[in-house]
Structures are given as C-alpha cells and as structure tokens.
Amino acid sequence: MATSSDRRDPFTAFRFEVRIDDMVTGGFSECSGLQLDMEVCEYREGGLNDRVHKFPSRTRQANLILRRGMVDRELYDWYRAFLEGNVRLRSGVVRVLDESGTHTALAWGFKAGFPCRWVGPDLDAAHSRVAVETLEICHDGLHPNI
C-alpha cells in the first residue's frame, strides 16, 4: 500500500512561463494548443470482414495560442513584420513550474514558429478590464525540453 509520502500531486496549470527566443514577452495569462494528433491510415483487406487494419501516419500539431495583458507592441510588431515580408522564424519553450514556482517540472519546445494570427483587445469604455491580446503561433512540432 502506498503511503502519503509516495503520493505525487498533479502540477498546477497556473504556474507556467512561455519564452520566445530573444523577445521580452511578459507574462502570459493563458497558453493553449499543447496538442499533437496522430493521423491513422485505415486499410480494408479484401476477404477480412471482421476488422480494419489501422496504421500510424503523420503527426499534426495544433497552433500555440497565447493570451496576455498588453504591455507593449512586441508581439503585434512581430506579426506585422511578417505580413510585410520580414520573415523571422522563432523558437520557444513552454514550461510548467513546480509548486514553488522556481523549477521547471515539464517543458515543451517548439522551432520554426511564426505568428499566424493576432487578435487585439476588446475595447469598451463601460468596463474596467485589462486589455488582452492573443497571438497564435504555427510551428514545426512540440519537443521535450528540460
């Protein structure tokens, strides 16, 4: 029987950081898109009617979606420069921090990332919310990175 000292609690989803090459991005309030999907090919063998053969194929990666309170125009400027033909692919890492918030518990790196969508804040003078921007990054896949 396992004792309570052997118990491993799950990591919390609010202790994380995202770094993109040399950019000072500030803190992100949300990060989604840590997702890989395996494509499956099916083969229907003639005369074999009780099953379909399935084989692994390519892996597809979701885009990273990052949200943060606006503190500067650095993410927008990266996107805008890309639109104007100034292509600069960047690498980055998403880190989940331990309970103390000082050590990396899990990490995923990405390479050849480029901004494929930028969404500015919803502005409304009737509310006192933080101006939040969203950046979507296409990349070549997630890789373990610790």
Short description:
The chain is 7% helix and 45% strand. The protein is mostly beta strands and 146 residues long.
Question: What attributes does this structure have?
Answer:
mainly beta, extended, single chain, Pnp Oxidase, Chain A, 45% strand, seven-stranded antiparallel β-sheet, 1 helix, two-stranded antiparallel sheet, 146 residues
Describe the structure.
There is one protein chain. With 146 residues, the chain is mainly beta. The protein has a single domain (10-144), classed as Pnp Oxidase, Chain A (Roll), CATH 2.30.110. It is built from one helix and nine strands, in the order E-E-E-E-E-H-E-E-E-E. It has one helix at residues 74-83; strands spanning 16-20, 30-32, 36-43, 53-61, 64-69, 90-97, 104-119, 132-138, 142-144. The strands form two sheets. Strands 1, 2, 5, 6, 7, 8 and 9 form a seven-stranded antiparallel β-sheet that branches. Strands 3-4 form a two-stranded antiparallel sheet. A hairpin with a 6-residue loop joins strand 6 and strand 7 (104-119). The longest helix is centred in the middle third of the chain and has 10 residues, at 74-83. It is extended and about 65 Å long.
